[in-house]
Write a structure and sequence with these properties.
The chain is an alpha/beta fold and 287 residues long. The chain is built from twelve helices and eleven strands. Strands 1, 2, 3, 4, 5 and 11 form a six-stranded mixed sheet that branches. The protein has a five-stranded mixed sheet with strand order 8-7-9-6-10.
Length: 287
């Protein structure tokens, strides 16, 4: 059997959306799936180098890898009224050039933050280290992502919601595009379509069996949070809107790319639809 490695982040939503495959609830004929979990910036950097065939990425990275990867329509995470948080110590006043910790240069939150706070002094670190860096005074503020937005220390407070920054930059209310999956263009088209179908089914099955799958993840210590927090977190980032991209989600991704191009992060404007796997190829090929 062909071994196919899927690289995703260690946060609970990615684990949840993949593990219907890991537990054998979904499979693909002739393929044995394996997985590896790495922090999102590491995944972004490896996508830039073309290391993995199927990899989780920040949406803000995609224009940089468009020639080598196609975005998948499934396993997507958006914020809708919520998202990453700019946090600081309670009562702290931030100067114009405050020092801030971000989770990686190519993350969506980093791009939006840098646009909103051009004078901030940015340092990058693993997302798991950001909260302690603020508490220890190594930085004045940090942007929390993943489960940390629900579990941060009571000595900290929110300076600003990334959702609010996004709405101001977008100029209208759109879901905040955070992360998704990308597949290498080196994979034959018919096989790439099959991979996308399988991963879509995995997210769909995970949602159908959310409570059972969550129990299994908790029993095996595969997530870093408790049951109530996991339930809440999955409704934020691995919900029914994660199964396949909707029209409004396409609009949001395109607005993100437009904003990034306007502020000099990309070399040309692009539309997400122009780079997707042409799923219609399968039916045309078999007609």
């Amino acid at each position: 059997m062909k071994k196919t490695l899927i690289a995703h982040s260690p946060d609970a939503d990615d684990i949840f959306m993949y593990y219907a495959i890991k537990f054998g609830w979904v499979d693909m004929g002739g393929v044995k799936f394996e997985n590896i979990a790495e922090d999102i910036q590491t995944l972004n950097e490896k996508a830039l180098k073309g290391v993995y065939e199927i990899v989780a990425i920040s949406f803000a990275l995609y224009p940089h890898i468009r020639e080598d990867y196609a975005p998948l329509r499934t396993a997507v995470s958006f914020g809708n009224g919520y998202g990453p948080k700019v946090i600081k110590k309670k009562g702290a006043k931030l100067k114009r050039n405050f020092k801030v910790a971000l989770s990686g240069e190519h993350t969506t939150n980093a791009m939006l933050f840098r646009i909103a706070y051009p004078d901030a002094r940015v340092t990058y670190m693993n997302f798991l280290e950001i909260e302690d860096a603020v508490l220890d005074g190594k930085v004045d503020a940090g942007v929390l992502i993943h489960e940390s937005i629900l579990t941060y220390n009571s000595e900290l407070e929110v300076e600003r919601e990334m959702w609010d920054i996004w709405q101001e930059l977008a100029g209208k209310e759109l879901p905040l595009p955070l992360g998704g999956m990308a597949i290498s263009r080196s994979i034959p088209l018919n096989k790439a379509i099959e991979y996308e179908e399988t991963l879509t089914k995995a997210v769909h099955v995970a949602r159908e069996h959310k409570h059972k799958l969550s129990e299994m993840l908790l029993e095996r210590n595969l997530v870093r949070i408790d049951a109530p927090t996991l339930d809440k977190y999955l409704e934020l980032y691995a919900n029914d809107d994660s199964i396949t991209l909707s029209d409004i989600q396409y609009s949001a991704i395109n607005k993100l790319f437009e904003i990034g191009y306007k502020h000099g992060f990309y070399d040309s404007p692009i539309k997400a639809e122009d780079f997707m796997i042409p799923a219609e190829y399968k039916s045309l090929r078999n007609s």
